[in-house]
């Protein structure tokens, strides 16, 4: 099994990163360079998280072998460090290997140090140099590659110049103090420490939010009433954002241009309308004006697409939650969907996740499962907060994670060690990464699922992951007392810690900031628990869902009314379509206009194209939605039905008769 576990992890993590990128990004439409940079940054960060438990178990095994080779005596730190860095010339005797059982996931000497150096320095190159450049490149409105590169270099000149100025100042300072005698390795350590300090500063802020919000969200999500009220709130906000995005796109399209330059890059569905509405101008536009317009068009179209998809998703969630509330009070143990989706007739729905099983999950099991999970996550959060405040104490050992790892180490239970490390670090990553996925900085950084995240936000998330993951892993090693720079224990270092260098070069950071700053997570957890941040954002005009707020209640009522109007429009569309179809059934039975019906059915450009005879009457109502959208031109109807374009919504026949 030597090295097999590492190979499996490398492959599995790649597909995990690819799946997340496919869920948030658009693999077919977005630029290849953007997708490659984001995928590589996510992959390297996830790789650190999944391989670190293997590094811990391998280090514990090497510590056992070294302790059996040399009886417990004071051993120099240099000797243990040399062992960590992979001195393959040292082979333990047979007695040591008999006492110390080799872990199933043992990684051969020399593999991890090389792997960690490649992963760490590649991720740092991405986050500090390449991804900022690619962000400016992706947002540029230039029409050629050379123009985009030029724009990116100009925008990042100050960014790169600041790094160069800091580096030159550091070299001058070191040269002015020859007593320091800093080597190249020491300079690398200083750079790594600076990057980790920046990451730890942001890490504690995100961790303090996630440790409280994740358990609380699962506890509150156990109630359908809470979820439905929050969905109404989001729907009301999204309606406003959707209207603003449509208005912004219309403003961008209503630009008077010289006719040859009218084909500014925009979606095909808008080009025809733009050709009808835009007035020609005899004034030739400048190149910079076209570049600026191109940039605005890209941003407006992207935002318009995001709001449409999010609007549709919120409607689906609201309808599902309303159906759950109705089914919960129904005596029939059968989950009934008001608008069955396209997945309702899949083999999974028919044979595995049947309506009866769905009713038991939604109405009986879901609440208890979510609350049990919330309690477990709450206990894990409490353990993290306690350990963050006490991990510097080694005699006695107060960190709960360190206690558990040391108990498993005495029994040489490597599977428990790896599982405990993986669960702990995975929970820390979920708390931090989920906060990154929830952050919304206006419309500049916003991770939107269903392939709607723009290139700038994807690359910004890659930058954040690359800056947060290394200090998060170092913090975890400190929690389990396997970072001697913090715990000051005389033991072998992990291969991951060895590439970070000796933090004793900057003792005021290793003995001060790295130990006492994580204690701030306790205050941040208290602030999150009492919704301090949400209340501040609410006062600033960024509406947040707060149960005891009057504005929240108004938005919930507004969202409920919007959902009701959409429901009525969809049901009306089904009724109109069924009446239309019944009319053609009469013609069919009397032998009249059969050819006309066939022509309509075969016309692929017709809004009812593709309708064929089927035993599923309700599946045809989706075409009624599109038909009604084409027939009705009222502004309110268009606002509530335009989300149906390009997707199927099924209406049960029995509810519309």
From TrEMBL:
Membrane topology qualifier: Multi-pass membrane protein
Domain of life: Eukaryota
Cellular compartments per GO CC: membrane
Family: Belongs to the LIMR family.
Single Gene Ontology BP annotation: adrenergic receptor signaling pathway
InterPro entries hit by this protein: GPCR-associated_LMBR1, LMBR1-like_membr_prot
Protein name: LMBR1 domain containing 2a
Principal location listed in the UniProt entry: membrane
Transmembrane stretches, start-end: 6-21, 33-52, 118-137, 157-176, 188-212, 369-386, 415-436, 513-532
Keywords in alphabetical order: Membrane, Transmembrane, Transmembrane helix
Location(s), subcellular: Membrane
């Amino acid at each position: 099994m030597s090295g097999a576990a590492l190979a499996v992890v490398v492959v599995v993590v790649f597909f995990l990163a690819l799946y997340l990128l496919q869920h948030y990004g658009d693999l077919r439409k977005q630029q290849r360079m953007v997708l490659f940079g984001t995928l590589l940054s996510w992959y390297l960060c996830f790789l650190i998280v999944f391989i670190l438990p293997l590094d811990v178990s391998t280090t514990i095994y090497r510590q056992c072998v070294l302790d059996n080779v040399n009886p417990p005596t004071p051993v120099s730190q240099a000797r243990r460090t040399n062992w960590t860095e992979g001195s393959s010339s040292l082979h333990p005797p047979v007695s040591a290997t008999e006492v110390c059982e080799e872990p199933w996931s043992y990684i051969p000497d020399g593999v991890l140090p090389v792997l960690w150096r490649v992963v760490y320095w590649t991720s740092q190159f991405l986050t500090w140099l390449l991804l900022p450049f690619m962000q400016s490149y992706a947002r540029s409105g230039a029409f050629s590659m050379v123009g985009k590169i030029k724009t990116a270099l100009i925008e990042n000149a100050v960014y790169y110049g600041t790094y160069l100025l800091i580096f030159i100042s550091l070299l001058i300072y070191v040269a002015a103090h020859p007593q320091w005698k800093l080597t190249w390795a020491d300079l690398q350590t200083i750079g790594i420490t600076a990057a980790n300090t920046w990451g730890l500063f942001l890490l504690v802020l995100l961790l303090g939010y996630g440790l409280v919000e994740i358990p609380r969200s699962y506890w509150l999500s156990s109630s359908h009433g809470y979820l439905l009220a929050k969905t109404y709130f989001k729907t009301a906000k999204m309606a406003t954002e959707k209207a603003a995005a449509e208005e912004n796109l219309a403003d961008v399209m209503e630009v008077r241009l010289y006719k040859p330059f009218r084909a500014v890059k925009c979606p095909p569905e808008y080009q025809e309308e733009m050709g009808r509405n835009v007035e020609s101008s005899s004034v030739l536009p400048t190149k910079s004006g076209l570049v600026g317009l191109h940039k605005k068009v890209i941003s407006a179209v992207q935002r318009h697409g995001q709001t449409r998809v999010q609007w549709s998703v919120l409607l689906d969630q609201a309808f599902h939650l309303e159906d759950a509330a109705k089914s919960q009070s129904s005596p029939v143990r059968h989950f009934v969907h008001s608008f069955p989706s396209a997945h309702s007739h899949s083999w999974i729905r028919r044979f595995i996740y049947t309506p009866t099983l769905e009713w038991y999950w939604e109405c009986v099991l879901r609440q208890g499962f979510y609350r049990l999970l919330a309690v477990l996550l709450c206990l894990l959060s409490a353990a993290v907060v306690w350990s963050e405040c006490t991990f510097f104490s080694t005699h006695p050992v107060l960190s709960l994670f360190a206690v558990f790892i040391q108990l498993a180490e005495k029994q040489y239970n490597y599977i428990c060690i790896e599982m405990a490390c993986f669960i702990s670090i995975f929970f820390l990553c979920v708390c931090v990464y989920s906060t990154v996925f929830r952050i919304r900085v206006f419309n500049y950084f916003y991770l939107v699922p269903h392939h709607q995240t723009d290139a700038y936000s994807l690359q910004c998330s890659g930058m954040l992951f690359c800056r947060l993951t290394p200090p998060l892993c170092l913090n975890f090693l400190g929690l389990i007392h396997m970072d001697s720079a913090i715990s000051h224990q005389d033991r072998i270092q992990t291969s991951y810690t060895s590439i970070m260098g000796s933090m004793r070069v900057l003792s005021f950071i290793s003995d001060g900031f790295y130990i006492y700053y994580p204690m701030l997570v306790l205050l941040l957890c208290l602030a999150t628990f009492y919704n301090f941040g949400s209340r501040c954002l609410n006062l600033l005009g960024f509406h947040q869902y707060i149960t005891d707020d009057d504005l929240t209640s108004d938005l919930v009522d507004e969202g409920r009314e919007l959902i009701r109007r959409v429901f009525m429009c969809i049901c009306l569309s089904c009724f109109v379509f069924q009446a239309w179809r019944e009319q053609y059934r009469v013609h069919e039975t009397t032998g009249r206009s059969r050819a006309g019906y066939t022509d309509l059915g075969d016309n692929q450009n017709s809004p009812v194209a593709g309708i064929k005879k089927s035993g599923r009457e309700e599946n045809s109502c989706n075409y009624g939605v599109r038909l009604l959208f084409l027939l009705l031109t009222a502004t309110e109807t268009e606002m509530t039905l335009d989300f149906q374009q390009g997707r199927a919504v099924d209406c049960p026949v029995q509810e519309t008769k």
